[in-house]
Amino acid sequence: MRIPVIAGNWKMYKTDKEAYELASSLKNRLKDVNSIKIVLCPPFTALSSVKKGIEGSNIHLGAQNMHWEDEGAFTGEISAKMLLSSGCSFVILGHSERRMYFSETNEIINKKLKKALEVGLNPIVCVGERLEEREAGKTEEVVENHLKGAFEELSEKEAKKVVIAYEPVWAIGTGKTASPKQANDVHRFIREKLKGLYSQEVYESKIILYGGSVKPENAKDLLNQVDIDGALVGGASLKTDSFEKIIRSAII
Ligand code: 13P
User: Fold this and answer.
1) Which run of H or E residues covers position 230?
2) Which end of the chain offers a freer environment for a tag, N or C, measured as fewer CB atoms within 10 Å?
3) Are strands 90-93 and 208-211 parallel, antiparallel or unpaired?
4) Which of 127, 215, 233, 246 has most ligand 1 atoms within 8 Å of CB, for mutation?
């Protein structure tokens, strides 16, 4: 039984005050939802206000990135332990925007993943192809490369704790969603690949989220697919109404 996860990636949106308001209104609206894991990933500067906003609820706090070292002279960076001490239990790693604009490689993502697991954060690792890669028929090759790169040297025990998010880059922020079948095919491919790397248990229990223009209008169809276990939502997670609707679509 895979418990659905719906995570909101707020990217570089929301000031402290705006973040508090959104978090507390979600807390009030979602009091009755307990069959789904809800995760809010605000910018670093709003972690503490979102923590206050969700206090007393079972909504989880997550970050959007971290450094792989414990501490040091790394101006502008945040460590895994700092995230833990700010109340985070999740962290998004290897988002395509980090790969694209901040030159994150598989090696960097692998180092971050190992550190997140070492300190006890639940990582959400993103994989996904760009439009030209899909058009060239390279989707599976790219996704396999991201997957193997991120999971390099991870033990069975560690691999079990990782949440995967399939986010086709061409569907992020573009309004173009992968069709439920297109998304499910890649989710199935990811699950099959994990079977080659780890046990049957990892294969069966792995939570694989879909991300890329998830909206209230398409959430149900996507979440109904057998291999889609939740969503990583960008734009539509920035408003209470739309995010609430997506969360409610995940209730079976
Ligand atoms: P959108 O939902 O805005 O397309 O963003 C998806 C995403 O990148 C989530 O991490």
Assistant:
1) strand 230-233
2) N
3) unpaired
4) 233
The Cβ of residue 58 has, within 10 Å, a number of other Cβ atoms equal to 13
The alpha carbon dihedral of 209, 81, 153, 110 has a sign of positive
Per-residue pLDDT 10s for the chain (252 aa) are 899 999 999 999 999 999 999 999 999 999 999 999 999 999 999 999 999 999 999 999 999 999 999 999 999 999 999 999 999 999 999 999 999 999 999 999 999 999 999 999 999 999 999 999 999 999 999 999 999 999 999 999 999 999 999 999 999 988 888 899 999 999 999 999 999 899 999 999 999 999 999 999 999 999 999 999 999 999 999 999 999 999 999 997
Q: How far apart are CA 205 and CA 103, in angstroms?
A: 31
Q: Which two tokens stand for residue 66?
A: 């971290």
Residues β-bridged to residue 240: none
Query: By C-alpha distance, which of 121, 185, 113, 175 is closest to 146?
Result: 113
Determine whether the shortest distance from the Cβ of 173 to ligand 1 is under 6 A.
yes
Q: Compute, in angstroms, the gap from residue 96 CA to the centroid of ligand 1.
A: 10
Nearest atom in ligand 1 to 235's CA:
3
Structure tokens at 239: 């408003």
**DSSP letter at 12?**
T
Whole-number Å distance between alpha carbons of 190 and 183? 11
| Paired residues of 14 in beta bridges | none
Ligand 1 pocket mutation, candidates 5, 6, 9, 247, criterion most atoms within 8 A of CB:
9
Beta strands in 76-172 (DSSP E): 90-93, 122-127, 163-166
What residue type is assigned to position 61 of the chain? L
